[in-house]
Amino acid sequence: MSYVKNLSDIPILFKIFTYCADTMPFQFDRKATERLIILYEQHPNLYDITSTNYKNKVMRTESYREIAADMKKELNIHVTYHDINKKINNLRTQYFVETNKIKK
After folding, report:
1. Measuring CA to CA, which residue among 77, 84, 90 is closest to residue 62?
2. What is the pLDDT of residue 60?
3. CA distances (Å), origin 43, targets 26, 28, 73
4. Is the residue at 4 inside a domain?
5. Does a structural domain hold residue 98?
6. How far apart are CA 91 and CA 82, in angstroms?
7. Which of 14, 54, 64, 95 could join 81 via S-S bond, C-beta 3.0 to 4.6 A?
8. Range of 47's domain?
9. What is the pLDDT of residue 3?
């Protein structure tokens, strides 16, 4: 016998925990990161400002979806557009931090 008749009967903390668990970002290991970089290089419209499709948001989103599909197929991992975008931004930031350390 279920005591919960609808979602509003569930305490708010359980709702928050369930939402957070479902939306947790993928944790990239070294193998996944290396594969992401290789796949990212195959889509110049994501990083080459001279590319004709660089400003085309539809093409950029499609490229991210293709990368996610390839990672799922090759490594059997589920990553989202946001996971990939965040990881690429983190890698770019870390690259500039390290190069600035060398310059100093």
Report:
1. 84
2. 94
3. 21, 20, 17
4. no
5. yes
6. 14
7. 64
8. 27-103
9. 52
Which pLDDT score, from 0 to 100, does residue 103 have? 87
* Domains of the chain: total: 1
> Consecutive sets of 10 residues in the chain, 104 residues long: mean pLDDT of each?
54 48 72 95 95 94 95 92 93 94 87
Residue 71 lies in a domain: yes
Which among 27, 36, 92, 91 has a CA at the least distance from the CA of 64?
Answer: 36
Q: Identify the pLDDT of residue 27.
A: 85
76: helix, strand or coil: coil
- Note whether 38 and 77 are within 8 A (CB): no
Pinpoint the alpha helices (H) of the chain.
12-22, 30-41, 57-75, 81-103
Predicted TM-score (pTM) above 0.90: no
For residue 20, what are its two tokens?
């957070």
SS3 readout for 26-43: CCCCHHHHHHHHHHHHCC
Tokens standing for 4?
A: 């919960």
Dihedrals phi, psi of 37, to nearest 5 degrees: -65, -40
